[in-house]
Structures are given as structure tokens and as C-alpha cells.
Amino acid sequence: MNxxxxxxYKDRAKEYENIYLKPERLDELKEIEDILQKIFKDKVILxxxxxxxxxxxxxxxxxxxxxxxxxxDSVLEVAKNKTYLNNNVKFQxxxxxxxxxxxxxxxxxxxxxWSHVKLQELNSFIKKTNSFIMDEGTVVLxxxxxxxxxxxxxxxxxxxxxxxxxRKSENGSIHNVLKNFPAEEFIRKKLESIxxxxxxxxxxxxxxxxxxx
Length: 213
Hints:
This protein is an alpha/beta fold. Helices cover 26% and strands 29% of the residues. A hairpin with a 5-residue loop joins strand 7 and strand 8. The longest helix is centred in the N-terminal third of the chain and has 14 residues, at 26-39.
């Protein structure tokens, strides 16, 4: 993850969850919550890029246990202050590309991280993500679709095809944020030769891909 992106999430830690308050997205967010709680019921989960713990809190209601990781201390502090009724969540500061857990996990959740990975680094990201999971384990990745009028406008594209948005934090800082919006066909092609049982769920504002190792 590039330095400006890390700084962006650090600056926005306490305001980040405002993105989940957009009224047009609320029904889909509840649908995703239900889907994830069913998938992760009674599972031992690794969550990468957990951010402020919005989804950590949702899946903790049905999961057996969760190790929630993020590269940023500021968002982890927000996540740690949420209420986890089942007392089944632990947090670690980790860069997923250098993370070497002692054991593999049954399941993995990576929410809204695919879009922040450069296209030329996606293969490494997928390989690293899959390495955390035991054979026949389940990986769930989800992210945004680009919806005009709801998404931030795309303001530039680099020579690799990566797209960028300009975002402003409440403290006034401005960031040029990498945000890619892959099509279902692109995601399937990236995965189909190395994973099995791919299930793609396309909603209006979000997409979810579920697969087995």
C-alpha cells in the first residue's frame, strides 16, 4: 500500500465510517452483513485491512474467532474501542505483504482492499492472501463498484491502467487515492487458474467474490 494511502486512512480514522451512512447504500450493506455472517459462522477467521472494525464487529456476532489486522495504528485504535459481545476478536498491526502467521486460518475476509492494490501487484496480493488459508478454506474479498453520483469521480489514470480519486479529509488534508474498479470478468480471470468454487455476487454499489483454496 502506497504511503499516501496509508496517510489518508490515518487522517480519516475517526471519520471513515461516514461512507457507510450514504442512504442509497444501506440496504446493500445489510445484505452483505447477512451474507458474511452466514459464511463465517463458527469459523476461525483472518481479516486483512480491517480498518476501523466496521465489518469485524458484524462478523464477530457469528464467528468462532477473528484475528483482525491492519497496517495503521490509528484505525486499529478505533476498531479496538468497539463492542465485541462474544469476546472473540484480537487485533494486530500487520503489513499483509510481510505478515507470517504461525498457523493457517479456516477463512479470510479482505474488505475494500483489492481496489487499493496496483494492477501490476495484484498477482502478488492474491498469492499472499491465499497463503494464509488452509486447504479447502474460504476467502471472501469485497469492494466497491463505480456508480456515478455516489462514488468519488475518477480524476486520473496511470500507464498501468490504475485509476485515482481525490479525497479530502475533515482536517483539510487532500489525498490522491488509488481506487480501481475491476469488472467481474477481470476478477474471475485473475482467480480461475489458482482457486476453485468461485462465487461472484454483484450488487449495485458493491461486489463480493467467494472462493475456495
